[in-house]
Specification:
This protein is α/β, with parallel strands linked by helices and about 400 residues long. It has eleven helices and 15 strands. The strands form two sheets. Strands 7, 8, 9, 10, 11, 12, 13, 14 and 15 form a nine-stranded mixed β-sheet that branches. Strands 2-3-1-4-5-6 form a six-stranded mixed β-sheet, with helices on both faces. α3 runs parallel beside α4 (about 105-115) and α10 (about 305-320) packs across α11 (about 325-335). The protein is globular and about 65 Å long. The termini are far apart. It binds P-hydroxybenzoic acid. The site of P-hydroxybenzoic acid has 9 residues, from loops.
Length: about 400
């Protein structure tokens, strides 16, 4: 054998040996957390990441004898970027779990990657009903928009609201909100006098709110995604809708705990339904809110945070049950988990892989110098009505 060939051969053997060694030593359990960390939905990414890190800080970074490694990636809010990052995380980083997904289109774009690679995908934020049906590997720990808005429609019908205008952001969860709220409200005997949709990117609410004012409904029903509620609320006041006696009722993302304090008096009395409020009265939530604030300069966790915190719980407990094994066994161990969340009792329906939880009717009230979504009624164990379509 020529000397050079021999050296090449030895180098090759060396590389193989090194790679085998690294593999054997790579005793990590990797979670790829894909979030909008820049762009218009960066606040969502920040809430999700902070809560995932809080869970790890409280529960340790070792599970089933393996070191949990959280790989956080910025998807910029773009579906194409989210999908590409998911592919890289699966192929290059060999993650056991894909997680995050701040918006429905991001979850939908990634679903085929989860299916093809048989990687469990924990949806911690996206809330359109259809999301869990996009891949059998998806488990959801956030909420579903239909779950929330039908509860609000029932409340509205019982509280002297007979005519509404609906105003939603024009993308999947907005369309779900419009469909399921309006359907239920009409079935209850109410009237929807106009249905309006505003664009997702750079929405200008003014012309839409003028139409609402002209239609003079008893209430405006609205959905906008987390972070966008401040702009809507400001315009609602500026256009004088509150003074005109039009009540505002909304899917709970509108009075997002992260931004509610910046909304001012116009938010007072607004009734929403949602699965989580930072003011939820339970010892577990009190601890969660305090610990989140301590770790994040006094910030208040919102419903995005609780989706990530519980998502990490689902991942940790599943990894314990499978002793760190991934794929199908890990997915199966996520299904059917029942536990107390800071939001209240929840479970992951083993059939639908979707979250079943209490939905709270809340009213914005001032307590001391802060605004809170105060829970006034609870509807227990609500399933996603979208699944029975
Ligand atoms: C979604 O895109 O599914 C979504 C995002 C933010 C929300 C609610 C739903 O507040």
């Amino acid at each position: 054998m020529h000397k050079r060939n021999f050296l090449n051969l030895m180098a090759g053997v060396g590389l193989t040996a090194i790679s085998a060694l690294t593999h054997a030593q790579d005793n990590s359990f990797k979670v790829g957390l894909i979030l909008p960390m820049s762009g218009p939905f960066a606040a969502t990414g920040k809430q999700l990441e902070s809560a995932a890190r809080l869970y790890m800080a409280q529960h340790g970074d070792t599970v089933a004898g393996r070191k949990v490694v959280l790989i956080v990636k910025d998807d910029t809010g773009s579906p194409e970027v989210t999908k590409r990052i998911a592919q890289e995380l699966v192929v290059n980083d060999k993650v056991q779990v894909l997680a995050g997904f701040g918006l429905t289109p991001l979850a939908m774009a990634t679903a085929p990657v989860a299916t093809q690679s048989k990687t469990p995908m924990v949806v911690m934020a996206a809330a359109t009903s259809i999301v869990t049906e996009a891949s059998p590997y998806i488990v959801r720990t956030s909420f579903t928009v239909p779950q929330v808005v039908v509860t609000l429609a029932d409340w509205a019908s019982k509280n002297n609201i007979k005519r509404v205008v609906s105003l939603v952001t024009d993308y999947a969860p907005g369309v779900d909100s419009e469909k399921y709220f309006n359907q239920r409200f009409i079935a209850n005997g109410g009237q929807v006098v106009e249905t309006l949709r505003v664009p997702l990117r750079n929405p200008d609410f003014a012309p839409f709110l003028q139409r609402v004012r002209d239609a003079k409904p008893d209430a405006l029903f609205t959905f906008v995604p987390a972070g966008v509620g401040s702009a809507l609320m400001k315009q609602f006041a500026e256009r004088g809708l509150d003074k005109a006696g039009i009540r505002l009722i909304a899917e709970g993302s509108v009075t997002d705990d992260d931004i509610i304090n910046g909304m001012g008096d116009v938010a007072l009395g607004v009734v929403t339904t949602h699965h989580y409020s930072a003011s939820h009265k339970s010892p577990l939530n009190k601890k969660f809110v305090e610990a989140f604030g301590k770790a994040n300069n006094g910030a208040r966790p919102n419903f995005m945070a609780v989706g990530a915190y519980d998502g990490m719980r689902v991942i940790y407990e599943a990894a314990k049950a499978t002793k760190g094994q991934g794929g199908e066994p890990l997915l199966n161990a996520m299904k059917g988990q029942v536990f107390e969340s800071p939001r209240g009792p929840i479970y992951i329906d083993a059939q639908t892989r979707d979250v079943v939880q209490n939905i709270y009717i809340r009213r914005v009230e001032r307590v001391g110098d802060q605004l809170w979504n105060q829970e006034i009624e609870t509807v227990t164990d609500v399933k996603d009505i979208g699944k029975s379509r």
